[in-house]
Amino acid sequence: QVQLVESGGGLVQPGGSLRLSCSASGFTFRDYGMRWYRQAPGKERELVAAISANGVNTVYGDSVKGRFTSSRDNAKNTVYLQMNTLKPEDTAVYYCNSAYRGVWGQGALVTVSS
């Protein structure tokens, strides 16, 4: 069974940091690129970050460049999203997505508020 499970969401104050994890199973993780998306209430889903299968290449959305970093550990079948200098406008449900059949995780809620 192909599955992506996000973890690490929560409530953080503005300026704080969080790290999301996405654990994959059911496919050869190291062969596929991964993406992070987010969806805020009342807004469309937007691409946050993309990382190549080997982790060498990354792409970031304009709104998170310089603050967010995606990485992966292919030995652990896990992709990460390190989020620094968080802003209230970063509040959203964050999803990981695999290039393998376009599989989606269930989402992790990140709330940035004082």
Protein architecture, described:
- This protein is mostly beta strands.
- It is built from no helices and ten strands.
- A hairpin with a 6-residue loop joins strand 5 and strand 6.
Short synopsis of the structure:
This protein has strands at residues 3-7, 10-12, 18-25, 34-39, 46-51, 58-60, 68-73, 78-83, 92-98, 108-112.
Any chance you could write out the topology, listing elements then pairs?
Elements: E1 3-7, E2 10-12, E3 18-25, E4 34-39, E5 46-51, E6 58-60, E7 68-73, E8 78-83, E9 92-98, E10 108-112
Parallel strand pairs: 2-10
Antiparallel strand pairs: 1-3, 3-8, 4-5, 4-9, 5-6, 7-8, 9-10
List keywords for this structure.
10 strands, mainly beta, globular, single chain, 114 residues, 6-stranded mixed β-sheet
Structural class computed from helices and strand pairing: mainly beta
Number of strands: 10
Taking all Cα atoms into account, the compactness measure Rg is 13 Å
For the biggest sheet, the summary is: 6 strands, mixed
Q: Give the topology string: H per helix, E per strand.
A: EEEEEEEEEE
Inertia-based shape: globular
Q: List the total number of helices.
A: 0
Q: Helical amount among residues, as a percent range?
A: under 10%
Strand arrangement in the largest pleated sheet: 2-10-9-4-5-6
Q: Regions with pLDDT < 50 over 5+ consecutive residues?
A: none
- Separation of the first and last Cα atoms: 40 Å
Q: Classify the beta-strand content into a percent band.
A: over 45%
Mean pLDDT: 97
